[in-house]
Structures are given as structure tokens and as C-alpha cells.
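Consider today's protein:

***
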Amino acid sequence: MAWKTIAAAAATLALAAGCSTGPAAPTNAEANETAAAAPAEPVQNRFDNTMSGQPLARPPAPYQLLVTQATFAEGHVIACHRHTWPRFVYLQAGHLRVTNFATRREYDFTGPAILVESIGQWHQGQVMGPGPVTLVAFEQVPPGLPSNSTNWPPPPPPENPCRPWAR
């Protein structure tokens, strides 16, 4: 409230001196609208499992938080890969389809959304459109490890687990 009193006094003095004060301080009604617009409690999501139902676990301590942001064009395919530890992805915008070759399931996500990727299961993503997808990935990794992902093709066996199945 003190700032309103100070702002009103400054405006009165400035007007008396013939000066402009710039933008007016918010009225009580404007201040009440701003306060009313704030949610009572923030939205929270709790995740105990990956999208394929696996329990969450973290790498051995100590570990680092690796954060990656990427934007992919409509139609782009994120190559088949798997993760050693959980990978949490914030899908800021767009439509992403994740195909899990181990469970033979497809998961569709439209941003904004949170994805908890599967652990040790081969999967890929495809930007379905319209427009690009923007992702921010958060993953816990042992210090110095450049990624939590293993891309196909890994060492043997030579069979490709990243191939479509009959639907």
C-alpha cells in the first residue's frame, strides 16, 4: 500500500509542476484482478513410473543434471534409442508420437506436456505436426557422461529391435 501512496503523491507533485508521470500506477480494481488471476495452488504432476510403466530410479551418486533443448521440424524422426536412467522431457509445443518397440505401443503427446521416457527399451519419436516440436530434456547422469541415450545400432546382437510391427 505504501507504494500507492508514494506514487499518488509523486503524480500530484508532477501534475502541479506540469510534468508527465508516465504510466499510471495500477488502480485497486486492476490490482485485485491480478491477484484473482493467480491460481490458488500451482499445478503439480507426480510421476512414479515411465510412460511404459517402469519404476523410476536414478544413477549412482554422485550424478549431474544434464539439460538439453531442441526443436525438430514437422515430419522429423528422432532416431531409435534407449536410456539407462529416466529421462524427463518437457514438450513445450507440438505433437510428438513416441513408438516403443519393446512394448509395441505408440504414445501421442501434445504440448505442453511432461514425458517420462522408458528405461532400457528401444523407442523413437516422430514429429506429427502441424509445425515443429520443441523439447527440453532433463536427465541425471554420472559426472562427465555426455548423454543418457544409446542410439541404434549398438554392439551385437545384430537384430534390429527398432522395426515396425504388424498393427
About this structure: Residues 83 and 119 are 5 Å apart (CA to CA). The chain has a mean pLDDT of 80. Residues 2-16 form the longest helix (15 residues). The domain at 64-151 is CATH 2.60.120.10 (Jelly Rolls).
